[in-house]
Amino acid sequence: MLIHCTKKLLNELKIAPSIAPDDFDPMFSWRANIIMKNRRKIVVLMCDLNRYVVVLYGLKAKDFKELNERIVAAIRNTLLKEQVNLDVVECYLAKAGEPVFVKNATAGRFRLEKLSPVRFLALGA
């Protein structure tokens, strides 16, 4: 699973981004941004292929240390709440693999702009 992070999110994670492969399947590629609301940190994820959104609300410093596990759990829980079959969810997560955090490429900037409406919904504005 490829997570394209904004600079703000990479700074919060305090990690060096990996190199993004050129031929990665967009089904397993996500964009991630961090926003604040009521002094709470919110990570917004959006799938590149279908613009499916997953939101992690109220994250603390310890949550960012294990963000890869939190992301996988959030995607699993969100898909299950949407009534997706458990076998399908587990197959998707198995094919996606472990999250790899990469720097958001300029070519993918338009995808980041697609997160703006999601940000306004999350902030209640």
Description:
With 125 residues, the chain is of the alpha/beta class. It has one domain. The protein has 5 helices and 5 strands, in the order E-H-E-E-E-H-H-H-E-H. A 5-stranded mixed β-sheet has the order 4-3-2-1-5, sandwiched between helices. Strand 2 and strand 3 form a beta hairpin. Helix 3 packs antiparallel against helix 4. The protein is globular. The N and C termini lie far apart (31 Å).
- The number of helical runs is 5
Count of DSSP strands: 5
Low-confidence stretches: none
Mean pLDDT equals 85
How many separate domains?
1
Cα separation of the termini? 31 Å
Radius of gyration: 14 Å
Which term fits the overall shape?
globular
Q: Helix/strand-derived class?
A: alpha/beta
Q: How would you sum up the major sheet?
A: 5 strands, mixed
What share of residues is helical? Answer: 40-55%
Order of helices and strands: EHEEEHHHEH
Beta-strand content estimate = 25-35%
In the sheet with the most strands, the strands line up as 4-3-2-1-5
At a glance:
With about 120 residues, the chain is an alpha/beta fold. The chain has helices at about 5-15, 60-65, 65-80, 85-95, 110-125, and strands spanning about 1-5, 30-35, 40-45, 55-60, 100-105. It has one domain.
Topology overview:
Layout (H helix, E strand, L loop, with lengths): L1 E4 L1 H7 L15 E9 L2 E8 L5 E7 L1 H5 L1 H15 L4 H11 L3 E4 L5 H15 L2
Parallel strand pairs: 1-2, 1-5
Antiparallel strand pairs: 2-3, 3-4
Helix pairs in contact: 3-4
